[in-house]
Q: What sequence folds into this?
């Protein structure tokens, strides 16, 4: 752990065959932390190419029909109903330890619920009225108490929360932000979250979202991010968690960290394209130990090893990277043997 660090990135790029205007991408980043825990981030991104936010001046008229194949219809209807150009929602449980875990992949790691959005200004309905409707709609969609984010909790810190994407120049926008630290995150939030994904939890990386393991983590959070740029409307669903592998029921009191101990099994989405496996290593000597031979990439002062799993003829076994080398005196696979009852005279038979 002190000599090298491993960052595992599972990346799947999918292009729907029936509808070329929608593009889906999912990835998994696994990184060991210096205190022995493991940080995992799953990201599911859907791009609606050439999609545009709804003009707030036309909210009183009937909206045009929306036909989605990969883009979540329920969320898209909410965004168009209230003229929302950009939205960010996070539901977290626990306290992020910056000293031991560093900076997270997603910046919104505050405890509880946080919602902020850039809403188009103009039209017959005010921004505050549509902000209230957005909160209530998301509360019903994700089974949360976002409706309690009333005017007393709402602020407009535009400089603190700038747009993460672009804003249409045809009209002005206003920011609305609110947070609820006492909001709890549980299975009833994860279930509607998974239902917005193209394959739900039946295939792809979404199969890793085991609620029993996810909510047993030291810290976990859900995120929904909607942005717009010249390519179209992008929605990103993210799941972050910090696991303690030694506390897992699968690897308890063992030396090795098992990949399926934190997640479980996973599979491919049948109608999608191949999955790529990325490894980030800091020592090039490990390149000689990897098989099949990967493609070496260099980006942002980091080395990436790319494995094209779809080119292998044999199924890929579950990944079990070792964080610490196993000690020869501690065979993790041997069953534990119960001690025999004490004999007369206070001696215990050790079974030898």
A:
């Amino acid at each position: 752990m002190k000599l090298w660090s491993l960052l595992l990135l599972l990346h799947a790029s999918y292009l729907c065959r029936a509808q070329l205007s929608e593009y889906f991408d999912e990835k998994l980043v696994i990184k060991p932390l210096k205190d022995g825990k493991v940080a995992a981030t799953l990201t599911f991104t859907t791009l609606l190419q050439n999609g545009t936010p709804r003009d707030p001046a036309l909210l009183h008229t009937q909206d045009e029909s929306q036909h989605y194949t990969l883009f979540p219809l329920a969320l898209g209807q909410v965004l168009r109903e209230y003229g929302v150009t950009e939205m960010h929602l996070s539901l977290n449980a626990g306290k992020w330890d910056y000293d031991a875990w560093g900076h997270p992949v997603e910046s919104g790691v505050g405890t509880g619920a946080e919602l902020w959005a850039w809403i188009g200004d103009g039209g017959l309905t005010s921004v505050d009225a549509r902000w209230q409707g957005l909160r209530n709609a998301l509360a019903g969609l994700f089974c949360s108490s976002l409706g309690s984010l009333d005017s007393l909790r709402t602020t407009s810190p535009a400089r603190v929360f700038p747009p993460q994407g672009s804003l249409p120049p045809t009209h002005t926008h206003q920011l609305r932000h609110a947070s609820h630290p006492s909001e709890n995150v549980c299975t009833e939030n994860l279930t509607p979250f998974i239902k917005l994904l193209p394959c739900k939890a039946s295939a792809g990386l979404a199969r890793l979202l085991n609620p029993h393991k996810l909510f047993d983590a030291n810290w976990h959070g859900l995120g929904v991010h909607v942005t717009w740029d010249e390519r179209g409307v992008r929605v990103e669903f993210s799941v972050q968690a910090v696991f303690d592998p030694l506390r897992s029921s699968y690897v308890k009191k063992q030396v090795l960290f098992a990949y399926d101990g934190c997640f479980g099994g996973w599979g491919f989405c049948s109608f999608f394209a191949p999955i790529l496996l990325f490894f980030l290593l800091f020592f090039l000597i490990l390149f000689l130990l990897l098989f099949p031979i990967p493609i070496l990439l260099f980006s942002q002062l980091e080395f990436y090893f790319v494995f094209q799993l779809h080119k292998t003829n044999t199924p890929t076994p579950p990944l079990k990277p070792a964080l610490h080398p196993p000690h020869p005196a501690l065979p993790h696979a041997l069953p534990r043997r119960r001690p025999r009852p004490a004999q007369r005279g206070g001696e215990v038979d050790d079974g030898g």
Notes: Residues 127-141 form the longest helix (15 residues).
